[in-house]
Amino acid sequence: DAWVTPPPYTAKPPVLLADGAQATRRPSTADGGGPLEIPERSTLIVRTSGGGLGSLGLEIKAEAGEPQRVEGQTQSAGGDAAEVRTELVRSAVVRVFGGRSELARWSFRIIADQPPKVALTKDPERTPRGSLKLTYKIEDDYGIAAAEARFERLHAAESDPRTSWARADLLKGPRPPLDRPPVLSLRLPRSNAKDAETSSSHELGSHPWSGMHVRMTLTAKDLGGNVGRSQPFDLVLPQRRFRKDLAKAVIEQRRKLVEDARYRPLVVKALEALTLEPEGFITDHHVYLGLRSAYHRLVQDRSRAGLKSVIEQLWHVAVRIEDGAGLTEAERRLRDIQDRLSKAIEEGAPDAEIQSLMQELRQALSEFLDQLARQAEGQPTEFPEGLNPNQIVRPEDLERMLNNLENMARQGSRETAQE
């Protein structure tokens, strides 16, 4: 008995080569049969039973190199049953021997597992609140296991040495290591999608690298472990836009800590100056205490973990200054329910759970919009660059979108609903 089993991820069935019970055998090269095309890393299994065959073994002869011998293993106490198996990674002629007698011969042509192809189909899109939308296409011969967007930081050009005398040498000593770059998990295309674009949205406003010049590369890993990469794309990571002066000042000091930890003494002085006379300047006690806490932690804790924690703390303080406590909490609840609903749709949750999450989404969205309206009272309307003021989403438009989302999720169009 002999057969070839392709790797499970190919979803291809086993190929029968010889069936001793039926006395049938696939034509071998000796019989004029052509090579059998099989996926890379398929497993050839040969079993024999009966006395007088001798030791079971394989001889594998590739186009280049010496023949390779694979010996079988005895499967029964009496020695009348044996098995041999091997993984085929190159095109070759395989001969089956029982002792010195050739029992069968087959020629295999290996179909290589090609690495996946991944590429951006549109330039990355950014939003004023620090979100990044990536639109891309991923292709593979069998299927994709995971896809990511990876980044490396692009450093600014060195300053002109002719004017170095006018600048103070603020950074001395060895530079501590930078924070880890963000790694974004990308949505995978549907298994039956051909030449279809896929998009993925990511919140990057709070990441320490937001606003920095980076080089992005999309990577895709297929089910066989092969990795494909896109062409690098240079961009500035999206960052949250702050309008209030105190929030801008806090974010500026946070950026210094992110760019180089040797700016710590300057940031300490700046935080001390910002909180020197808070009366009439800082009205929120939480903001004042947050800045003073960051100041003392920078003075007392010089560990890398402590620095990273202060960077995160300064972000939350700046957002509270900009939005106030109400809007910050409403936005956090809205993002949380969005993530839960997206995961439920992806995992095929029952209709009752989808309906419950949709109700929570409606409530969270309503609270968020109410807080936005309160914050915008008495302030001039500003539209992001490139946005047409006539393209306004009205409450009835939002309600219609939510109804469509719920209907698609309940009727089986979950890919479209998640999109």
Write the layout of secondary structure elements.
Blueprint: E1 2-5, E2 15-19, E3 24-25, E4 36-39, E5 42-49, E6 56-62, E7 68-71, E8 73-74, E9 81-88, E10 92-98, E11 101-111, E12 117-120, E13 125-126, E14 131-139, E15 144-153, E16 183-185, E17 198-203, E18 213-222, E19 227-229, E20 233-236, H1 245-259, H2 264-274, H3 285-300, H4 304-346, H5 351-376, H6 395-411, H7 414-418
Parallel strand pairs: 4-11
Antiparallel strand pairs: 1-2, 1-5, 2-3, 5-9, 6-7, 6-10, 8-9, 10-11, 12-14, 13-14, 14-17, 15-16, 15-18, 18-19, 18-20
Helix pairs in contact: 1-2, 1-4, 2-3, 3-4, 4-5, 5-6
Write the element-wise H/E pattern from the N-terminal end onward: EEEEEEEEEEEEEEEEEEEEHHHHHHH
Q: Kindly state the percentage of residues in helix.
A: 25-40%
Average pLDDT rating: 83
The proportion of residues in beta strands is: 25-35%
User: Helix/strand/pairing class, anyone?
Assistant: alpha+beta
Tell me about the biggest sheet?
A: 6 strands, antiparallel
Beginning-to-end CA distance, first to last residue: 50 Å
Shape designation: elongated
Radius of gyration: 32 Å
Count up the helices: 7
Strand order of the largest sheet: 3-2-1-5-9-8
> What ranges have pLDDT less than 50 throughout 5 or more consecutive residues?
none
**Total beta-strand segments:** 20
